[in-house]
Design goal:
Blueprint: H1 2-24, E1 27-35, H2 40-48, H3 52-60, E2 63-73, E3 76-85, H4 90-99, H5 101-110, E4 114-115, H6 118-122, E5 128-129
Antiparallel strand pairs: 1-3, 1-4, 1-5, 2-3
């Protein structure tokens, strides 16, 4: 009986630790870019039916819980994105994604809709990183 209780306690402890250990591996990213007002409808329609190959590549590159939000501030429109990364080499996974032909075609559809902020333009990028100031589990 003591051995059984020990096994139950150990397994119970391990199951409590596993999610916590897994959460420590998650890196969260928030980014922002502008959106051309005349492209809002097209941008929304693209994301209403994302291409399966692009979604698959996101998974293969360890990107999860990817969300994009739209907000008007004054007369300008902005997109805010959030995703979680669970891989071990973010740079390598992003290079893998950028080399994917389906993703490249997707970006050719979405890029003309977007208005990068000045810091992103200087780096020839579309999305500007945001600083995480608060997170809770």
């Amino acid at each position: 009986m003591k051995k059984f209780l020990f096994v139950v306690v150990v397994l119970g402890t391990m199951s409590c630790l596993s999610p916590r250990q897994e959460k420590e591996k998650v890196q969260r990213y928030g980014t922002i870019t502008g959106l051309k007002p005349d492209k809002i409808g097209y941008y929304k329609s693209l994301h209403a039916q994302p291409w399966p190959a692009v979604l698959q590549r996101l998974k293969e590159c360890n990107v999860h819980n990817y969300s994009i939000y739209l907000r008007q501030i004054d007369s300008a429109w902005y997109l805010f994105s959030y995703f979680e990364y669970t891989g071990k080499d973010f740079s390598a996974d992003m290079k893998k994604m950028a080399a994917d032909t389906a993703t490249q075609r997707w970006w050719k559809e979405t890029a003309p809709c977007q208005l990068p902020l000045p810091d992103a333009l200087q780096k020839n990028e579309t999305w500007s990183p945001l600083e995480e100031v608060f997170h809770t589990d």
